[in-house]
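Summary for the funding panel

The consortium committed to producing paired sequence-structure records for every protein in the target list. Below we show the first two records in order, beginning with the earlier of the two.
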Amino acid sequence: MGYLYIFVGGALGALIRYMLSFLPLWHGLPIGTFLANMFGAFFMGFLSTYSLRFLETHTYLKKGITTGCLGALTTFSTFQFEVFTFISINAWFTGFLYLTLSSLLGIVCCILGLKLGDDVS
């Protein structure tokens, strides 16, 4: 039964990720991948705390949301490829900026999600 939840969550996450891919570049940065990873980091933090109380009896639903939806939504491999692409065209500053912003803001988003999830629950 858990596989079905992960499958449906994964389909939803992949669809959201696909829709974000249509966002235009922002100052040369791939904003769709960036937003997908920031949303994923925030909601992983939020759900990790929030689900401790409200989803503990619905483990399949939690796996469907975290492993399925957020796993398909976030795009670490795409992120790595985009950083490599910047480096390969000698856009070192843009690549470093994208790498730094994504990494640091991803951690901040996760922390905010954890704190908000703890406050809500």
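The next record, for a separate protein in the list, is shown here:
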Amino acid sequence: MAPRLKGRRALVTGAAGGLGRAMAARLAEDGASLMLADRDRAGLAQLCESLGAVPILADSTDPAAIQAETSKALQAHGPVDILVNNAGLSGNSLPLEQITAEDAATMLAVHVQGAIHYAQAVLPALDHQSCGRIINISSHFAMVGYGAMSHYVAAKSAMLGLTKAWALELAARKICVNAVAPALLDTPMTRASLGHAEIDRRAATVPLGRLAGVDDIAHAVAWLASDEAAMMTGQTISPNGGWAVVGI
């Protein structure tokens, strides 16, 4: 049986981070060839070498660089079928009084404007392809709220708005647009930040008994990218173990 994404090319933004790496590896395992975007030159180079991927070195806050570097990659290597808008920043649990104008502007620029600019850069290549996919990485905090880092919640909520609007706008072009909304992930970075005891405490509140890992999110993304999800558009999946029952 051929891999379900054989013959397709995916572009993953924010690929050099832990979640981006997991999604890129999962898509590659399912047969997709890759274009990977990040501002981390060294991390991006290492990842692209390991996965045989095409690098796109660009900062998500720089629309000119996104357009130029993405266009260069598309011209040299051909169109993409799948865009995963993953590039993002942590909200650092900032209370409202501590969020600066720069904090808010940067948060929106990376998550929302970055997603728009990457979508614009690849859209001509996605046109008229029956397997076109855009997958936006949001957060389950955008669905249920969170008592801090409201600038982050706002940006991730905007990603859900983009998903719904693009799903309707691009349906005539046979492009499906969906979102994946992870909860807090159990990663080495979050354990280093919060400590093992706090991660274990939070995991105990999840009905399935654990926090999701990056592979759980990667599997959801790969499924949405496949023909198995051909009738999914405008939807949000939240692999959170029942932590928040938000539907689909």
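Regarding this second record: The two ends are 29 Å apart (CA to CA). Residues 18 and 214 are 7 Å apart (CA to CA).
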